[in-house]
Every structure is written in C-alpha cells, then in structure tokens.
Write a structure and sequence with these properties.
Shape: globular
Strand content: under 5%
Helix content: 55-70%
Structural class: mainly alpha
Oligomer: single chain
Number of helices: 11
Number of strands: 2
Largest sheet: 2 strands, antiparallel
Radius of gyration: 19 Å
Distance between the termini: 35 Å
Length: about 290
C-alpha cells in the first residue's frame, strides 16, 4: 500500500512545526527576566513547561509505557535498546572526531561494525561482550568540549530537560549525524525516531520509585539529575574528574543551584541488573524527563 504524497507533506509539515515550536520556546526565553540562579536563570518559565510536560506524561505517556512494559517481553525490549544504541554510534563516531578523540572514534566505528553484523543489525551488543566499551558523544558534548560549558538550563515542550546548547545540538545530530534523514520514507523515519523516544521513556519507569519517594521538589531533582548526567558524560565516565561546570563563583544566589559533587546514586534507583553508575554512563538512559523523561 503506497502512502499518498499529500499525507507525506502533511506529516513533514507537522514535524517541522514541532521543532519550530521548540526553538520558539527557547528563543522567547531570552526575553524573560533572568533569575538569580546562573544555572537556571529562567526557572519561572521552565517550571510552567515542567508542569505541562508532567501532566502530559502522567495522563498519556506513563500509562502507555506501563502497558508497553507489561506486554512486551524484556528480551525484546533489551534488543530494541541495543538497536537504538547501535544507531547512536554514528553520531558518537562523528562527534568523537570533532572532539579530536581518534581512539574513541576508532572504537566506536569498530563497535558499530561488529554489532551491525555479528549483533544482527545491533539487536545484540556483541562489542561490549568483547570488551569494547561504548564511547558515547553527541554534538552538545562536542560544544562543551570546545568551550560552550555554562549553557542555561531549559525545559522544552514534550522533550523535557535540556540546555539551550543541547536543544540546538540535538537538531544538528539528527540532521547531520543520524540515519533518519537517509530513510526514504519520511513517515517511517519520523515514526522510528518517535518510537525511540517512547521506548526510552518506558525504560525509565523502574527508576521513578525512588524519586517519587524522596518527596523532593520534582523540578529541582529533574534539573540536577540532568545536569549531573551531562557532566558525567563529559568527564568520560568519572563525574568527579571535571570541575563544576554549571555553578560559577561563590555568589549566595547559587545556593539553589545543583550540587555537582553529589553522588549519582541520589538520582537513580539501583536494581538487580543495572547499577546507578551504569545507568548514568548509558546515554540511552538519561535522567527522567517528563514526556521523554
């Protein structure tokens, strides 16, 4: 059954509108009054977006994610995770080159070749079993590497926590360093990307019990977990290897900013198969974000 060209045009326009809305929300933040926290200068606006995302997640995404986890066997879900992780190796290879990390780029390329062949299109992570650890990188980390470190925190509609730098970098990664633009059918490409975000949301369900039980401000905890996770990735797996990336000076207004020296275990629940540090080190399992969380 052929897809009508008119439907493709409508779908393409919908996706363009979606990303334009995200960019518009980011650009409009520049017109808002800055708060005292240098990490999160537009907290008032971000909290409103957080509340919107939280309602959308609670009423729509979370029930669907629970149903998904209940009816899809864990073996299949793990294979899906490996598949999307393997696709991300393309972006990691390009960004490791941009960060002048030839060894990491070579390992990434080798991982992609092994998992795409021996791992049956990436459904199995054979490379990790062979001792080749994932060398994750994205364009946001590349910009951090070359100096764009203290980007203000933001919350995008449907996409959840981010920074201005990471929001724009995500679009570059999708357009320049991913397989999606090369898929002939645009609806298929958009559907695959959307499914990857939904699958990631479903994976985060098991880590929410601790967060909900702490009775801490959900917005603050989500923000701090996201920024801590980005710091962890930039440090190459050691969250204490780099200095504070988001809080500047000793200004008293920084008291509400994130504590970058906090242990990652504060944010992620540990279970029988995945330790908290492994979860933070895995870029496919980012800190919970409402919607994609």
């Amino acid at each position: 059954m052929l897809i009508r060209p008119s439907l493709i045009r409508i779908t393409r326009q919908t996706i363009k509108t979606f990303f334009l809305v995200i960019l518009l929300c980011i650009s409009c933040s520049g017109c808002l009054e800055r708060g005292p926290n240098p990490t999160d200068p537009y907290e008032a606006r971000n909290r409103k977006m957080y509340e919107f995302n939280d309602k959308f997640d609670t009423k729509i995404l979370k029930p669907l994610a629970r149903c998904y986890n209940k009816h899809i066997p864990s073996l299949i879900r793990n294979s899906v995770t490996h598949f999307f992780s393997n696709l991300s190796e393309i972006s990691s290879f390009a960004n490791n080159l941009l960060e002048c990390k030839p060894k990491a780029a070579l390992i990434t390329l080798t991982r992609f070749w092994i998992n795409s062949t021996m791992g049956i299109a990436g459904l199995h992570d054979v490379a990790t079993e062979m001792g080749l650890k994932q060398q994750y990188a994205d364009f946001g980390l590349t910009l951090m590497k070359w100096g764009d470190v203290n980007s203000p925190y933001t919350v995008s509609p449907f996409m959840g926590p981010s920074t201005y730098r990471d929001s724009v970098a995500m679009l570059f990664d999708i357009v320049l360093f991913s397989v999606y633009p090369h898929i002939p059918s645009f609806p298929a490409a958009a559907g695959l990307w959307t499914y990857s975000q939904f699958h990631r949301r479903a994976e985060l369900l098991h880590s929410e019990a601790l967060i909900e039980a702490t009775q801490i401000d959900g917005y603050v905890q989500q923000r701090d977990a996201y920024l801590q996770h980005r710091k962890y990735l930039l440090a190459g797996g050691d969250p204490d290897a780099e200095p504070d990336l988001y809080v500047e000076g000793n200004d008293a207004d920084n008291e509400t900013a994130m504590d970058t020296d906090a242990e990652p275990d504060l944010y992620v629940e540990e279970d029988e198969t995945t330790t908290s540090k492994q979860l933070l080190a895995d870029p496919t399992k980012k800190a919970p974000a409402h919607t994609t969380q």
